[in-house]
Amino acid sequence: MSDxxxxxxxxxxxxxxxxxxxxxxxxxxxxxxHVVRVARSLQAGTADRRTDVSCDLADASAVERxxxxxxxxxxxxxxxxxxxxxxxxxxxxDTTPEDFTRTLTVNLTAxxxxxxxxxxxxxxxxxxxxxxxxxxxxxxxFTGSTAYAASKYGLRGVHEVLRAELATTGVRxxxxxxxxxxxxxxxxxxxxSKPGFxxxxxxxxxxxxxxxVLFAVTQPERVDVTExxxxxxxxxxxx
Length: 239
Ligand SMILES: NC(=O)c1ccc[n+]([C@@H]2O[C@H](COP(=O)([O-])OP(=O)(O)OC[C@H]3O[C@@H](n4cnc5c(N)ncnc54)[C@H](OP(=O)(O)O)[C@@H]3O)[C@@H](O)[C@H]2O)c1
Fold this sequence. Notes:
The longest helix has 29 residues, at 97-125. It contains five helices and eight strands. The protein has helices at 19-30, 60-73, 97-125, 146-165, 206-217, and strands at 10-14, 34-39, 45-47, 50-54, 79-82, 128-133, 171-178, 227-230. Strands 3-4-2-1-5-6-7-8 form an eight-stranded mixed sheet, with helices on both faces. It is of the alpha/beta class. The protein has one domain (10-230): NAD(P)-binding Rossmann-like Domain (Rossmann fold). Residues 15-21, 39-41, 55-58, 83-87, 106, 133, 135, 178, 180-181, 183-185 line the site of NADP nicotinamide-adenine-dinucleotide phosphate.
């Protein structure tokens, strides 16, 4: 592979201010792409093949404005990574309607809105790659995960339908479903203090997930990596 397999490509990564999204953005950038990072805490601006967009993905009109601006200022992304997500652990009866709705809004509706806005452009071009960051929770049940599982099982459904709809278009689709990854997402849970959870030191690293994304998006055009599942080697059954 060349040193810059993504030279001349435009990537868009949501939730790229920290954790997995930041690692994915850095991996795409290191492979030569210009990367648009989207998150609430980023300062808008462009420098050194990096464009940052500040956007609350829970706000549908803000998502629409952000995508319109990216299309106008940078063009159609070649690689779209729907990564932003939120997570908490609560039994179903303690999960408020607001918790549930917000989780679905950020984890499921926002990726849908981004796909809805960008997929027609990718199809028109006859090329492109949509990467969805799922989770082990998109195919396995964990206690305390009603809202998160609903969002991630739903996201896997979106990925499967998208793959069917895009099958003859030249646009590729990849679902990357990691087990626990040591990112700030775990700070409020503090898994090291709780029995049955994978210790943070044993978790995957954000760069491991980024390497999986990079693998998928640097395959020859004829290869569609449909799904990648990653687990820590030493993995507690609780998650
Ligand atoms: N960590 C894990 O164990 C794990 C395992 C499997 C799958 N995942 C999935 O991987 C993805 C990334 O998780 P992570 O562990 O990297 O989490 P993280 O460290 O908490 O980062 C979450 C990212 O999402 C962004 N985000 C959250 N709410 C947002 C909103 N309303 N609008 C815009 N951006 C928002 C955050 O940026 P701002 O706060 O700046 O907006 C941040 O960049 C998620 O989809 C998660 O479900 C994580």
